[in-house]
User: Which sequence fits this backbone?
């Protein structure tokens, strides 16, 4: 059985990432990209679907572990009756081929170790052919090859389509295992010194982390979240994956299992704010540039998500040979929600580009023409029902958040031209649209009896996305309707002191059976909203309770199950870490860029 979601730590090389369990097993790794097929898929099945175990012989779980300072280099310690050993896991930023390096170091005494490598390409379906070559164990199947060596050499042997090594380390001994993916038609990958690679990786991450300009009371949590966002960045394009995994469930044993290894436009503005205010203008600029490339084309064809390279086709299918995390089936690859109509994404794109200008980023010559084209389409399309921010697979509705973000799009277009008259556009039409949307939302999306905005027109259901109404400037935080909405969401969407997105088991809301946990990004939004309406102490108390949900190495998934006391959903989740950073900034008195 795989570990609990919180039992995993993340390592990565800014093009893909692996999950390392407290038992010393790498149970998830896709090569060569985040969205490639996994060669270790035990996370969604069992050890026969691929994993790499490296631990003291017979040990079940480590004594303790941590990242080394503000880096993505993981140190795991094992205290055994005969001695103590440390395993250091990392992935150096690549020049070409991805590498996973695991260094075993004797700390005291003498410890018997076991390495067990089970490679299964194509999400655990394909057993590769193993051979020896140039001091490596080589696994080959189709286009994929994986090369394994040790430094100094340790005897490896094969059994039952797996590769084993049994060895002993004493105090001061070091043994490095280097696993490299390589196209199977090419010659073997180049050799390098794994210990030098470790020094370079530590220096790279230390230099990057030192650029963080946040100096508030939650600096360590903010830096770890920013490192996680960096780790989820696909360096060649600047796209940021929503998570490193697919199909980790929103309900154990349920069917709400989705592939999150793609880039969502809904994350754009909030991510941009977190990166800029964290001091990472280069990363923010790369994310902005990815956004411009991804959304180029016919505005009517704008998708809610794209591949990490900007790909549009994210065809969804099920993998029947994987039983799913703790039996949570189906396992899905791809995401059919890419074809949904979600009108809020137009507002998120316009808001992101507005924030980029406000942050002083160099304006791309074609960016304004793209924004005008988006507004031309939205002006005639905002009246339509859609699937909304939460990608419901039920009937389309007039979601309040979608309409609010249509207002944001018009507002940012108007404000851009007002600030930069050299940019041309139909400002009169956009002002009229802005006023129409505002009036309609306040009339049809507001329940005067309960003093709250609702999830959709004519519905009594609530939606945590309405907590963003004051944040995006639709209404001021002092407005009684905003205060009423914050109170209603806090009361009616409460789950163990945190916040659900909506009521998933309400009839006909999202077209899916079952339920889900508290949504962590929405819980951070509640803290932001409480702070905005003047309840700073309550906001701080909620934020600090949210910090306690991080695992032992500071990572968050998408959701939290307050009954079982465990994380749920894909992991680590960029949206949760973006929420953490932005809430820390707000509670520390740092204004959002759009408010400066």
Assistant:
């Amino acid at each position: 059985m795989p570990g609990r979601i919180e039992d995993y730590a993340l390592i990565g090389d800014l093009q893909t990432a692996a999950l390392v369990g407290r038992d010393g097993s790498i149970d998830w790794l896709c090569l060569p990209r985040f969205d490639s097929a996994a060669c270790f898929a035990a996370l969604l099945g069992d050890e026969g679907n691929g994993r790499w175990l490296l631990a003291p012989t017979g040990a079940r779980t480590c004594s303790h572990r941590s990242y080394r300072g503000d880096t993505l280099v993981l140190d795991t310690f094992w205290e055994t009756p005969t001695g103590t050993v440390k395993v250091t896991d990392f992935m150096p930023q690549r020049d070409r081929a991805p590498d996973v390096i695991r260094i075993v170091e004797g700390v005291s005494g003498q410890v018997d170790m076991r390495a067990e490598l089970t490679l299964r390409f194509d999400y655990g379906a394909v057993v590769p052919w193993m051979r020896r070559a140039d001091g490596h164990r080589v696994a080959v199947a189709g286009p994929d090859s994986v090369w394994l060596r040790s430094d100094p050499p340790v005897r490896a042997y094969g059994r039952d389509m797996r590769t084993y090594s049994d060895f002993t380390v004493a105090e001061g001994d070091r043994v490095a295992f280097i696993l490299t993916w390589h196209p199977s038609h090419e010659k073997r990958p180049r050799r390098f010194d794994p210990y030098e690679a470790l020094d370079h990786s530590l220096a790279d991450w230390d230099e990057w982390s030192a650029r963080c300009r946040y100096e508030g009371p939650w600096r360590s949590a903010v830096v770890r979240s920013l490192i996680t966002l960096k780790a989820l960045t696909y360096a060649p394009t600047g796209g940021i994956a929503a998570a490193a995994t697919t199909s980790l469930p929103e309900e154990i044993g349920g069917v709400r299992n989705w592939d999150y290894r793609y880039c969502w436009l809904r994350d754009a503005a909030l991510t941009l704010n977190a990166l800029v205010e964290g001091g990472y203008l280069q990363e923010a600029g790369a994310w902005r540039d990815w956004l411009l490339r991804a959304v180029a084309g016919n505005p009517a064809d704008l998708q809610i998500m794209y591949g990490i390279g900007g790909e549009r086709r994210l065809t969804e299918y099920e993998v029947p040979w994987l039983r799913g995390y703790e039996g949570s089936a189906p396992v899905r690859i791809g995401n059919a929600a890419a074809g949904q109509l979600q009108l809020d994404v137009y507002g998120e794109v316009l808001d992101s580009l507005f924030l980029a200008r406000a942050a002083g980023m160099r304006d791309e010559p074609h960016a304004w023409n793209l924004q005008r084209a988006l507004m031309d389409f939205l002006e005639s399309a905002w009246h339509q029902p859609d699937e909304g921010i939460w990608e419901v697979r039920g009937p389309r509705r007039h979601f309040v958040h979608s309409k609010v973000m249509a207002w944001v799009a018009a507002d940012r277009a108007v404000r851009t031209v007002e600030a930069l008259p050299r940019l041309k556009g139909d400002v009169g039409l956009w002002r009229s649209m802005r006023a129409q949307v505002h009036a309609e939302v306040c009339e049809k999306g507001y329940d005067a009896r309960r003093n709250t905005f609702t999830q959709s027109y004519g519905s009594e259901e609530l939606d945590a996305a309405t907590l963003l109404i004051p944040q995006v400037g639709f209404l001021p935080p002092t407005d009684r309707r905003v205060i009423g909405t914050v109170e209603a969401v806090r009361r009616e969407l409460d789950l163990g002191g945190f916040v659900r997105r909506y009521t998933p088991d309400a009839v006909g809301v999202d077209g899916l059976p079952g339920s889900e946990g508290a949504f962590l990004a929405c819980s951070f939004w509640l803290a932001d909203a409480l702070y905005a309406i003047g309840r700073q102490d309550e906001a701080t108390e909620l934020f600090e309770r949210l910090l306690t949900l991080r695992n032992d190495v500071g990572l968050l998934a998408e959701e939290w199950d307050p009954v079982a006391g465990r994380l749920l959903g894909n992991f680590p989740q960029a949206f949760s870490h973006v929420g953490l950073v932005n809430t820390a900034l707000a509670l520390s008195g740092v204004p959002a860029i759009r408010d400066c």
Observations:
- Residues 400-419 form the longest helix (20 residues).
- The radius of gyration is 24 Å.
